[in-house]
Amino acid sequence: FQNNITNRKVTSFYTKALRKIHSTDFEVHRNWLAITHSLPVSRWYHENTSEWTLDYPPLFAWFELGLSHAARHFDPDMLLVENLNYASPSTVLFQRLSVIFTDLLFIYAARECCRCVQDQKGSRDVLNRPSFVLAVLLLWNFGLLIVDHIHFQYNGFLFGFLLLSVAKHLQRQHLQGALLFSVLLNLKHIYLYVAPAYGVYLLRSYCFTQDNKDGSVSWSSFSPLRLLALGGIVASVCALSFGPFIAMGQLPQVLSRLFPFKRGLCHAYWAPNIWALYNTLDKILATLGVRLKLLQEAGLPRASMTGGLVQEFQHSVLPSVTPSITLVCTLLSILPAVASIWFRPRGARGFLRCLLLCALGSFVFGWHVHEKAILIAILPLSILAVENREDAGIFLVLTTTGHYSLFPLLFTPAELPIKVSLMLLFTIYSFTALRKLYSGRGSLLRPLESVYLLGLVGVAFACEVAFPLSPWQQKLPFLPLLATSVYCSLGVCYSFLRLYASLLRPPGKPKQP
């Protein structure tokens, strides 16, 4: 009863605050509604009246076109391309409702994932069943809640396709899983992160129908018909999405929008990955070099990488990183995971573990990674967390770290109590529910992991409370973002390595507590 009262108060406060909260993504998607509704298809990927040009794959543009037909009944003025930064109450209401409506797919996908989880035999308490815990971890996910329903995006809709695709593979309905992922990839190309896991898994475990006695692939069991079926699915979806633009000779223009490499190594707010650590190390070395008179300050590049801008920059001391370098690093980071499901397949759950490593490898080493991309790993990891004790510990570290790394997305004073209360509720539930699920088997976290997570409290206090009151606020405005990125990078990279250890560990070897 007390929990219900608390939830109602938080929800009421959250609902009132949403009326005053707007992010740039409102204008991004409003502009895309206007472009797809008001302009011919041939101009969609050329229109640049707004700085927020259309840079998602064509299938998402078709999705925006469909939404625009409903949007005109709320406020037709939002569909005018020249109405930049238009945010009437009816426009905001429509955008909020469209996210809620499309989240129905995510709810259905969560239900299908819960059906794939085996509940403990003899479990009498529904609230402690793995399927129930998974449902809460997915539907009440803090990161997805603030990114979609406060900051504003359609990630729930997209993750619905991802989780439903994973569920279909867990249910051995591989063609349906392939179709769903093909649709997802044509809605948002960031899911290329996990495409290698899908491609190798389907080729190894679907197109090859048998294994040898030693577990190696039986080359004679290759099924050309199955490969053709998969190829037909992928080709059909891509044809529907890209076909009109290929026919108009606009494929190069579309691709230039999808892969804007001139945006720079890091996003305006550094995602917590290896490049945040690399940038920081470069800054430290440059500062030390100047103070020790080993470097001339006038000869160093301007420190644009700590200015919060989306642009290319040169490192001062360390070698500058190019897109090709990040691509090589990413491929090398996921190669062992992909090779593992080829040479030592472990079924659909082995595929899921490989998917997580591909997502994290791309996040850790990728070019111009968005901080929100950490959710591509967090949400699917929820499935493994309710089935395996070691994965539950990794989940707690990655989720707490990854979710806190999203705090800078909500930066106004009005948003502070919202993000703190919502994250506390989710984090407390995650720790409590998973501990009950694995009660009697020791702590889910190692001592150093607990110390690291407690350190987030200090970082949060310094960035959210102390720094705004300090004289450094005007001189070093990017410092809280830097501290958040660097500290969270350690947790993300650590989780990546622990997941790798669990994948590459020989079968039958006992797991460490």
Detailed description of the structure:
The protein is an all-alpha fold. The chain contains 20 helices and no strands. The chain has helices spanning 2-18, 24-38, 58-71, 89-115, 130-139, 142-152, 155-170, 174-187, 195-207, 224-247, 251-258, 274-291, 323-343, 347-365, 375-385, 389-404, 416-437, 447-466, 472-475, 479-504. The longest helix has 27 residues, at 89-115. The radius of gyration is 24 Å and the shape is globular. Residues 1-15, 306-311 and 509-513 have low confidence and may be disordered.
Output the keywords.
transmembrane helix; disordered N terminus; Glyco_trans_ALG6/ALG8; 20 helices; globular; mainly alpha; disordered C terminus; 513 residues; 0% strand; membrane
Describe this structure in a few short sentences.
With 513 residues, the chain is mainly α.
Q: How many angstroms separate the termini?
A: 36 Å
Number of helical runs? 20
Quick one: overall form?
Answer: globular
The gyration radius over C-alpha positions equals 24 Å
Helix content: 55-70%
Describe the largest sheet.
none
Mean pLDDT: 87
What's the number of extended β-strand segments?
0
Structural class: mainly alpha
* Unreliable sequence segments: 1-15, 306-311, 509-513
H/E element order: HHHHHHHHHHHHHHHHHHHH
Proportion in β-strands: under 5%
Subcellular location: Endoplasmic reticulum membrane
Family: Belongs to the ALG6/ALG8 glucosyltransferase family.
Protein name: Alpha-1,3-glucosyltransferase
Membrane topology: Multi-pass membrane protein
